[in-house]
Write a structure and sequence with these properties.
The chain has about 60 residues and is mostly beta strands. A five-stranded antiparallel sheet has the order 1-2-3-4-5, with no helix packed on it. Strand 2 and strand 3 form a beta hairpin. The protein is globular and about 35 Å long. The two termini are about 20 Å apart.
Length: about 60
C-alpha cells in the first residue's frame, strides 16, 4: 500500500519521530524509535479508524 502526502513529526532531541498518513477514515502512524530502552522495537505501526486504535504492531527489523 502506498499512501501519499504524509507528515513527519520529530519527537524530542533524541532522533525519535513519527510519520502520519491519512486515507479516508483510516490514519496510519509509524513511530520510529532511535533512542529508547534496549528492548524497544525499532519502529511501531499503529492504525486508527475514526480515531480509534484498531491495530498496533512492532517492527521486526528496520534500516535507517
Amino acid at each position: 500500500m502506498i499512501i501519499s502526502n504524509g507528515a513527519i513529526t520529530y519527537d524530542g532531541s533524541g532522533g525519535n519521530q513519527f510519520y502520519e498518513f491519512k486515507n479516508g477514515d483510516y490514519r496510519y502512524q509509524i513511530y520510529v524509535i532511535k533512542l529508547g530502552a534496549n528492548d524497544s522495537p525499532p519502529a511501531i505501526l499503529t492504525v486508527y479508524k475514526d480515531n480509534r486504535e484498531i491495530m498496533s504492531q512492532d517492527a521486526i527489523s528496520f534500516k535507517d
